[in-house]
Amino acid sequence: MEIIHAVHVLVKSLLIVLLWSDCEGRDSELDYVTCGSLVKLLNTRHNVRLHSHDVKYGSGSGQQSVTGVENADDANSYWQIRGKPNLPCQRGAAIKCGQAIRITHMKTGRNLHTHHFSSPLSNNQEVSAFGENGEGDDLDVWAVQCDGTYWERDEAVRFKHVGTDAFLSVTGEQYGHPIRGQREVHGMSSPNQHNWWRSMEGVFIQPNMEPLHHDEL
Q1: 207: cis peptide before it, omega within 30°?
Q2: Cβ(217)–Cβ(37) under 8 Å?
Q3: Is residue 98 over pLDDT 90?
Q4: Which residues does 163 contact at the CB level (< 8 Å), separation at least 6?
Q5: How far is CA 14 from CA 5, 24, 27, 89, in A?
Q6: Residue 49: enclosing H or E segment and its boundaries?
Q7: Average pLDDT for residues 1-13, to the nearest whole number?
Q8: Beta-bridge partner residues of 130
Q9: What pLDDT, on a 0 to 100 scale, did the predictor assign at position 217?
Q10: What is the mean pLDDT of residues 201-214?
Q11: How is residue 152 annotated by DSSP?
Q12: Residue 29, pLDDT score
């Protein structure tokens, strides 16, 4: 009987260890930014969140403007993380360092975009929101630059534009009317302290534990 009791104790101990390991594994998976997540992105140098709205630039491309705002509660600062136009990512899959993605503005359905127009305040490269219903062109694609294997939620990362090699940046210039106090967001040619971003508030899609379905983004 003592042997049977000892076996029962051992089995219970193993089950506890296995269950703890499973929970730990799931928690670690949720430490990453995943495909389909809705996030706010904070520029860590200037403490502003990436933002857009249905306000067009008065110069340059005339496309929808992209700015930085200090207000953490503004719903116009939510962006969805998606795959490339011809290479969608699986919903809930962790985004890899170096992976090419699209960053789509939730409210207007336009993609974070840059091109060889000058930005209105700093004369760097203009960053805009472009496309309709999440579909634009090849200049909507950015590569996530980070140190490990996957983009970690509490990690500062850079976004390098695939088409022009510009880094998504803020250097502090402020707009006047009609978006008074908002900061210019632009592209810069080199990595520096102005182009670090961290994921903040959001809805982070959990990894899909079921067989693959038609849920690619």
Answers
A1: no
A2: no
A3: yes
A4: 114, 115, 138, 139, 141
A5: 14, 15, 20, 36
A6: strand 48-56
A7: 39
A8: 111
A9: 64
A10: 66
A11: B
A12: 58
pLDDT at site 113: 98
What's the token pair of residue 89? 């990512």
Q: Is 16 exposed, middle or buried (0-12, 13-18, 19+ CB in 10 A)?
A: exposed
CB-based contact 188:125 (threshold 8 Å): yes
213 or 61, which is more confident: 61
> Which one has a higher pLDDT value, 159 or 16?
159
Q: What is 52-88 written as a DSSP string?
A: EEEEE-SSTT--EEEEEES-TT-GGG-EEEE-BTTBP
Q: Could you tell me the two tokens for 133? A: 């219903």
Mean per-residue pLDDT, 26-32: 65
As a whole number, mean pLDDT of residues 20-27 equals 39
CA distance 79 to 107: 8
Report how far residue 199's alpha carbon sits from residue 38's, in angstroms, rounded to the nearest whole number. 10
Please tell me the predicted confidence (pLDDT) of residue 30.
75
Considering just the CA atoms, what is the radius of gyration of the chain in Å?
21
Q: How far apart are CA 31 and CA 10, in angstroms?
A: 32
Q: What angle do CA 172, 35, 102 make, to 5 degrees?
A: 50
Q: CB under 8 Å to 13, separation ≥6 — which residues?
A: none
